[in-house]
Each structure stands twice: as C-alpha cells, then as structure tokens.
Amino acid sequence: MIYLDNKRASIKTILQKYPDALLLDVTSKSKTDYVKFSPFYPHGGIPIPFSEITSFSVEGIWQGLKVFENQDIDVSKFSNVTMKNLKRSGKYLGRVLGHRNGVNGKEILNYINARKQIYLPSYEYILKSKMQKEIEEIIKISQNRNIVLLDYNTNSDIENTKSPLSHASLIIKHILAM
Description:
The chain is of the alpha/beta class. The protein has two domains: about 1-40 and about 130-178, no CATH class; about 45-125, no CATH class. Helix content is about 35%, strand content about 15%. The protein has six helices and eight strands; from the N terminus they run E-H-E-E-E-H-E-H-E-E-H-H-E-H. The strands form three sheets. It has a three-stranded parallel β-sheet with strand order 1-8-2, with helices on one face. Strand 3 and strand 4 (about 55) form a beta hairpin. Helix 2 runs antiparallel to helix 4 (about 110-130) and helix 4 (about 110-130) crosses helix 6. It is globular and about 50 Å long. The two termini are about 15 Å apart.
C-alpha cells in the first residue's frame, strides 16, 4: 500500500502508524531523486494550460497564472529553474483574484476551477511524461512493502480550499488509476 503523511511529523510517529514502511520524501527539500515529484522541480517543457508556451515547473505555472488585485500574471515564473522565489504573496500584491485561464486568457478562474483546469493537468503531465521510471519504482516497491509519501500538505480533496492540495495525494491517485 501507499500512504500519505506530513513531512513535519516525526519519523517515529510515522513508523508507529506504518511499521517497516519505506518513507519517501517527495517535497522540494528531498535529498533523493524523488525531489523530481515536487511541483517546484524544473523539468522543463510543461505545457501551460490554455497557452502555446511551456514552463519549467508546475509551481511556475500555478504562481505565474495567479492574478492579484495589484498585479496580473507573472510570466517570469515559467522560466524559473532554481526551485526558489516561485511563490507570489498577497502581502505586497493585494488580494488574490484567482488564476488566469492561460497567458492570454480573458477569464479568471476561481480556486477550485484553477486546481481542476490548471494545476491537475500540469501535474498529471509530469507524472505521465517525466516521472514514469520513478512511478514504476514506487509501484514495484509497494508490491512487497508499505510506502509513505511525505509531503508538507496532506489535503487530498480538490474541493477543500482550507489548505493547499497535496501533490503526494495526486501521485497516489495516479498510481491507483493505472
């Protein structure tokens, strides 16, 4: 089986819940190849929904298409390869209005629709086209041993806007759908 838990939880606590499980850190702070599962990872060539251009990272798409009351989209996020300085905050830019439906889009999508129409297709793209080897490894290991994917967020409900969506939950859903 493959499970999801919070990276901030102690290893001892996680292993009490899932004895003998293999813990895989899939965050941007991972020291393993599983860092490539992070939305911040610069794979390159990720199609930006509703657009004819690509981004290096999923997070670059998500942050780049975000619209604030004092600033529209930020295309510089699409070319960021550092995994740093991707986040855009309302602290200086004003209230978040939503996400633009593409670089030249006229519509601003609400949070749930943006998750469904921007984040999910972008993340699914990397799982299908950039992460096949790692997905196969996880499947193979999980046939004989429990795996716990560690993420900073554990929200697996796309409709729940109280906390960020866990990309690790999307990995699990992708594997279960195979």
